[in-house]
Amino acid sequence: MRFLRRSDGEPDAPDEAHVGRPPGERRVVTRLVILVVVIAYAVAFVLENRKDVRVHFVFIKTTVSLIWLILLSLVLGALAARLLPLYRRRRRRH
């Protein structure tokens, strides 16, 4: 409302765009929403992959839940991704 503005230098009422949450609080809310979505996805992933499968390791055969096989593969992959660069650096030095 233009006719209600003060002429004594006091700031106008805040615009509607700036009335919401402060940027720091918006960031926290966004992170919480993303965290809830990731947790919901992880729970759904586990529930969808709980079927038992037969696994043939080199010397043994066993039946495990598919989710444990997937998680084992992720851990082994992460371990290999961490150790391979160390091995390559060491090999280049010699």
Structure in a nutshell:
By secondary structure, the protein is mainly alpha-helical. Helices cover 57% and strands 11% of the residues.
Task: Spell out the key features of this protein.
2 helices, two-stranded antiparallel ribbon, 94 residues, single chain, mainly alpha, flat
Would you give an account of this structure?
With 94 residues, the chain is mainly alpha-helical. The protein has two domains: 19-48; 52-94. The protein is built from two helices and two strands. The chain has a two-stranded antiparallel sheet with strand order 1-2. The radius of gyration is 28 Å and the shape is flat.
DSSP strand content = 5-15%
The count of domains is 2
Can you list the strand order of the major beta sheet? 1-2
- The overall average pLDDT, rounded, is 82
- Can you write the helix and strand succession as a string? HEEH
CA-based gyration radius: 28 Å
Shape descriptor reads flat
> What is the number of helices?
2
Question: In angstroms, what separates the terminal alpha carbons?
Answer: 77 Å
Helix content: 55-70%
Estimated structural class: mainly alpha
